[in-house]
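Researcher: Go.
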Amino acid sequence: MKKTFLFLLIAPFLFTNCSDDDDAVTEVSTTYALNEIGDSGVSGTARFTKINNTTTRIDVTLTGTPADGDHPMHIHMNDAATGGGIALTLTNVDGDTGLSTTTVTALDDDGDDTTDEAISYEGLIAYDGYINVHFSLTDLSVVAQGNIGSNVQ
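Model: Structure:
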């Protein structure tokens, strides 16, 4: 009887000690400045957050965007001073809120005409690139810009 009672006391601890948190990823993020170009009045940040080993979320927060604006954004190859082609199209910034969120697993263009190149958080924060924010879909003037990855000093 004592052995049965002792087993009943210990049994719940034997089966509840495991945790599912062993595979959880600690949030890792890097934030880049998006600086005003000309006298646009638009500036802000782009925050890259690691979701898992293959997925990154890019949250852009801008101030100075005109109400009802719709601002296209891209990550370009090379640094801002050199310029380069579009590597990744980001979700447009809503002018009312100044916010945009894009989930990334691959580049739009990896420099060839085959499949898109997968890119991780680590790949993005080491990437030779920059972000351009444009005034609108019909006026692609750059209103804010910032180097990312290996181009940030």
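Model: The CA atoms of residues 74 and 97 lie 19 Å apart.
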